[in-house]
Prior knowledge:
Helix content: over 70%
Low-confidence stretches: none
Number of helices: 16
Structural class: mainly alpha
CATH class: Mainly Alpha
Order of helices and strands: HHHHHHHHEHEEHHHHEHHH
Shape: globular
Amino acid sequence: MSTQSIDQRKGRDEANPFVKWLRNNRRVLTSAGFLAAMLIVFIFANPNVFTQFRTYRSVMIILPISIFMVVPLVFITTAGEIDLAFPAIIGLASYSFALIVDSGGNAFLGLIAALVTGALFGFLNGALVVNLGLSALVSTLGMNFLLRGLINILAQGYSRPVSEIRGTVLQQILTGNHIFGIPNQMFWALLFAVFGMFLYNYHKFGVHTHCIGDHPGSSKEMGINVNRTRIMLFVFSGIGAAIAGIFSVMINFVWYPTTGDAMLLPVLAGIFVGGTPTWGGIGTVIGGVFGVSIVSFIETGVIAAGLTGFYTQFVYGIIIISSLIGHRLNGDRIR
């Protein structure tokens, strides 16, 4: 095919709104298709489990915690950074919330304290990476260990029940009810994802994030305050971790010293499975939501298919690698 023919075909594709929409959303559509295909396999493997709504409802009880975390992490990854401190920030922020509620304080005051804690340590992460020039990978990993150690020192290894939160206005609004069988927290998580999508795609903060991930030097020449934006990304991640921690406590009515500890790899996997690559500059918030949904359904599907828990990590690997290959074939690397 001649170069002229290729250019003409490309021009026709540009003029077709549907083709343009497909191309712009191919990463999201690939993630959604992969989730649908996986669920179809699980349905055939065990129709008695995966044709029952209660199976999906059980996943949707906990899934929102991952969604609250994956949204800001898509921003960070798009900017070419990484945050490995979020599991410990989840634990520390939720500890602030549980401590105030268990001490007889107002639940809304506990919520504010948790958000401030998350934002504060997110800012600290950003300052270490941006102002001191530390590696985000090593710095946030060290902060994760530091904060987890601080949690254990403060709590002395003891959990903290917060049954006082049950029946309060805050609990009823956030997690106490369901609509058509879907838990309240799922709607809050989807609302947060929609907010993140608009911030990512249509707000200048999202535009600046893309530019920084694509080329930091050019971003400075364009007048973008690169350092401030990078710090704000870590603050956003800290706030997302605090929200995830609050919902974790309100779902379980107890705070554990290990709260957030098991979320590191599943959430990171959800980012990349959802179509946000490691090299920065591009990504997708909604794809990230599909990504953590894929990861959340894996263990349930493996057990329902009649396999033992020993197969879980094996299936994790297959699905993660397969989805990454699909994204790689479906979209060219831009750097």
